[in-house]
Amino acid sequence: MGEKLIIIDGYSLANRAFFALPPLTTKSGQPTNAVYGMATMMLKVMEELTPDYLVVAFDTGTKTFRHQQYEGYKAKRLKMDDSLRVQFPLIRQLLEVLRIPIYELPGFEADDVIGTFAKKAGAKGLQVEIITGDRDSFQLVDEQIRVLYTKRGITDLEKIDQNYIANKYQLEPEQLIDLKGLMGDASDNIPGVPGVGEKTALKYLHQYASLEAIYEHLAELQRKRDQELLTQHRELAYLSKHLATIVTDLDLELDYSLSAGHQEYSREELVAFCQEQEFKSLAKKLTGREMVAPVKEFGDLPFQISIFEAAAELPAELVENIYREQRCYLQFVTAKADWARPIHPLGVGIGDGKQNCFFSLAKKEALPSVLQEILTDPQITKSGHGLKKQMRIAAALGAPLGGPLEDLQIAAYLVNAGVDGLGLEELGEKYLQQRIPTWQTERGAKVTIYTLPPELAETELQRLVGGRLAAVQLLEKKLSLALEEMGLKELYQKIEKPLIRVLFEMEREGVVLDGGVLHDLGQTLKQRQEELETEIYELTGDSFNINSPKQLGVILFEKLGLPAPKKKKTGYSTDAEVLETLSGAHPVITKLIEFRQNQKLQSTYTENLIALINPETGRLHTTFNQAVTTTGRLSSTEPNLQNIPVRTEEGRVIRRVFLPKSGEYFLLAADYSQIELRVMAHFSGDAGFCEAFLKGDDIHQFTAAKVYGVSLAEVTKEMRDRAKAVNFGIIYGISGFGLAKSINVSRKEADEFIKMYFAQYPQVQEYSEKLIATARAEGESKTLLGRVRRLPDLQPRNYTRHSFCKRTTGV
C-alpha cells in the first residue's frame, strides 16, 4: 500500500465539534468547545489513522465563483454563531502548534482545495482519505480516494468508498453531481429541478446515467409531469450540476515536506496551549498523568429489562397491569423480516409502561401462550414504532396483533411534516436528547433491529429491545401532545391509524405473478444479451468490461478513433447522450445502446421481480410506505408497483404477468376523471369552471371554447391541446415561459393565453392567490384534514424555490 494523505475539511469539523460538544469557556469567557473538539480529533487522526501527510483546508469566508454564477448560492445558510466565529483564530493557532499546514484560496471553497489535492495525490499513487461532514466530497471517491464521513458528532466516522456509493445509490461517484443537478441541495441552496426528489432523480440516472443523457431522452420519460418539470427547468438543472461540481484542477500545489507526517510537533507547546485554554483533562492526558474522559454528545437512555424463558416467568404484575390498563408496549427483533423471504425471529420485548421483559425466540418455534393471548387480544392497545412491520412478524408467529394501534412512526411523520429522520434513534435524540442503543458491525455500520446477525448474543438483543421500549414509552406522551397542539389528532386517529391495518392486509395478500412468462422473458433477454456481447467484441476486436465507462471510452475513442467528447477528469464520457451522438459513426454504437436497454429490462424487471417472489406464498408482496412522502401519498418499494412501465411493448409484457388470484376474480384499473380540476372547481367555486363538470362536458374542450370565444363544435384539436396544457398548468403554477415551451408558442402568446384564461375563470385566480398569501404568512399549507406541508422557502428572495412552493400550496 502506498503512502497516505489525509485532508481535513477544517470548517466542517469545527462546526461539528461546536454543535456536538457542550459549551466550554475559559474563565475570561472565551468559548472553546470547537477548539477542544478539533484538538481531540487531530490527535486521534495522527495516532490512529497514522497519515504520512496531513493537511487542513479552510474556506476563506469570502464569496466564490459560485456566488457570482448564482446569487442564491448558500443564501439560506444561517449566519455563523458568534461563539463559533471567535474560536477560529484559536483553531488556527492549534493547527500551527501541531505543525499541520492550512490551505485556502480566495474565490474557491475548501471543497475545491480538497478536490484538487485529492486528485493530484491520487494520480501520484497516494492513498487519500478526506475527513469531512459534507456529502459533496462523495463525488471525489475513486480507487485511490475515500471519504471518512463524520456521521455524528466528531468521533463517529463512516468510510465512504466506491462500494458504499454503488450499494447506496447504484451510481458511480461522479454521477452524484448529476444527482445534485436534478434534486438540488437545500443545505447549499442549489435549486435543482423543482419537484424532482432523490427517488425520481435516481430512477432516471439508473436508466440514462447522466443529466445530459436524461435530457437527450426526455421524450421517452413515462411521467408527463417529469417531462414538464425537466423541460421547464432545464437551465436550473445544468446550473445546479455546475454549482455542485467540485473543482479539481486549481493552480495550487501541496508542499508535502511541510505536512504533519514530516513535522514533529512539540508536546510541550501543545500542553502549554491546552493549559492556556484550560483544557485540564487533555493536558493531563498529554503529560501521562491522567487519561481524558471520552466526549459525550448525548447521554444513553436509561432503561431496565428482564429476561424470561417461559410463560411462568413472565411477571404476574406486568400481565395484570397490561390487562388493567388495556395497553402494552411492543418490540420484535429479527434477522430477516421482509416479505420476500420467511422471517427469522430473534426475540420480542413487552412492557406495561413500568417494567419491560424480553423473550428470546432464537431457538424457539413459538411464542408462549400468555404472550399470544396479549398480542391477539382485541381490547389491548399495542404501542410501538413501525407497527406494520411488527404485525408481519407477529402474524408469522401465529399471534396476529389485535386491538387498537399506537404507532410512533406515523405520529412523528405527521408532526415532522417533510422532515427525514423518523427512526426511533433519531426521534430519541430529537425529543429526549438521549441515545437509544443500536448495534453496529465491526466496521461501524449501523444495522437495523430487523436485520441483526442470527447469532447475536441474547444479552445484546435484550439491550436493544430494552432501550427501544423505554424510548417508545417516553416518546408516546410527547408525540401525542404534539398531535393535539398541531390539530392533527383527528387525521391520526381516523385516517392514518386505520390505514396501518389496511396496508398490512394488502401487503400480506400480495399479488400473483405468472412466473412462466417472467422466466421466458428473462431467458429471451439473457440470450440476446449474450449475443450482443459477442457482437460487440467482434465489432471492436477486443474483449473488455462493457459496463465500465473507462474501458469503453478507451475502446471507442482511442482504439476505434471515434469523435471523442471533451475528456472529463475521470475519463471519457460514454453516457447515453454521447452514444446517441455517435449513432451511425460505427456499427458497434447501435449494439451498445441495445445492450444497455436490454440489461436494464433484465435487471430491473425480470430478475428483480422473480427474486422478490415469496417462496412460501408464491406471491409478490410489496411494501407500502405510509411515512415517506411529504404530501401524504403512499409509496411502494420492493418492488415499486406504482412504476411498472405501460407505454412500451416490454412494459405491456411485464404488466401481463400480474394475475388475479383465481378465476373468480379479475384485476381492475380505476382512475378519477380530471380529479385535480374537479378539486379546483370545488374549492374556488368558480361558476364557469363548475359549469363544465355539472353539464358533463369535456373540460378541455369547454375551456378552449371559453378562451377562444367559439362554440364547442368549433374547437379544434390544437385549441383543445392548448387548453388542456393551461388547465393542468394553472393548477401547478405554470409560468408564461413554461407554457410557451409546453405548447410551442411565443412567450407573449403564452402570457396572453393565461390572461384570457383568468378572465374566463376569475375565481380560480382569486383562490390561487389567496391560498399562496395564506401559505406565505403561515409558512405552511394544510389539507382539509389538517395535514401540514411546511414551506419555509415561500419567500420572494429565491424565485425558483419560491415558485416551486407556490405550486405546492394547494396539495
Structure description:
The chain is an alpha/beta fold and 811 residues long. The radius of gyration is 30 Å and the shape is globular. It contains 34 helices and 23 strands. Helix 17 links the parallel strand 12 and strand 13. The longest helix has 28 residues. About 2% of the residues have low confidence.
Shape: globular
Radius of gyration: 30 Å
- Structure classification: alpha/beta
Figure out the total of helices: 34
**Residues in β-strands, percent:** 5-15%
Mean pLDDT: 85
The biggest sheet amounts to:
6 strands, mixed
Strand order of the largest sheet: 3-2-1-4-5-6
Q: List unreliable stretches of 5+ residues.
A: 290-296, 795-804
As a percent range, the share of helical residues equals 40-55%
Number of strands: 23
What's the short version?
The chain has 811 residues and is α/β, with parallel strands linked by helices.
Keywords for this entry:
6-stranded mixed beta sheet, globular
SSE blueprint and pairings:
Blueprint (H helix, E strand, L loop, with lengths): L3 E6 H11 L12 H17 L3 E5 L7 H5 L12 H4 L2 H10 L4 E2 L6 H14 L3 E6 L12 E8 L3 E5 L1 H8 L5 H9 L14 H11 L2 H6 L7 H9 L1 H11 L22 H10 L3 H7 L12 E2 L5 E2 L8 H10 L1 E10 L7 E8 L4 E5 L8 H8 L4 E4 L2 H10 L8 E3 H8 L8 H9 L1 E2 L3 E2 L5 E2 L10 H28 L3 H21 L1 E3 L1 H26 L8 H11 L16 H6 L5 H25 L7 E2 L2 E3 L9 E3 L11 H8 L1 E2 L15 H10 L2 H9 L3 H10 L8 H15 L4 H8 L3 H14 L1 H17 L1 E3 L5 E3 L8 H10 L3
Parallel strand pairs: 1-2, 1-4, 2-3, 4-5, 7-14, 8-11, 9-12, 12-13
Antiparallel strand pairs: 5-6, 9-10, 10-11, 15-16, 17-18, 17-21, 19-20, 22-23
